[in-house]
Design brief:
The protein is mostly helical and 124 residues long. It is built from five helices and no strands. The protein has one domain. The longest helix has 28 residues. The two termini are 16 Å apart.
């Protein structure tokens, strides 16, 4: 795969991941009462809803900006843990809502792996 194709795959995966995270953060902020019930059912405290929404937005800023490699890595790691915990929480309560977390995980891995290959190609 040439560098141009890698960049296109990166932009598509990261764009879709961004859309998914912005919709999620928006839902956390604007449908807070509905989310309190969902979080309770999943076994998570409701007080993490607003901080999680803020973390998702800040994580997207870190991924899209090229200011700090360390912040970008932490953002990818934070999203990884968020998606893993969401996947297994939905699986544990058997509500059938684990698919968005799985899709997000695929987009996250695609974004991470292609951006790191683009970075490596630029360095060489």
């Amino acid at each position: 795969m040439n560098n141009k194709t890698k960049r296109i795959v990166y932009l598509i995966a990261t764009g879709l991941l961004t859309a998914l995270m912005l919709m999620s953060a928006g839902m956390y902020i604007f449908n807070h009462k509905m989310l309190v019930g969902i979080f309770s059912k999943l076994g998570y405290p409701s007080y993490i809803i607003y901080p999680l929404a803020a973390a998702k937005i800040l994580g997207l800023v870190a991924i899209w900006s090229n200011k700090s490699r360390m912040f970008k890595e932490w953002a990818y790691a934070g999203f990884f843990f968020d998606f893993i915990l969401a996947f297994f929480a939905h699986l544990a309560v058997n509500d059938g809502e684990y698919l968005p977390a799985l899709v997000a995980m695929v987009l996250l891995f695609t974004s991470y792996l292609t951006q790191s290959k683009i970075t490596i190609d630029r360095a060489v």
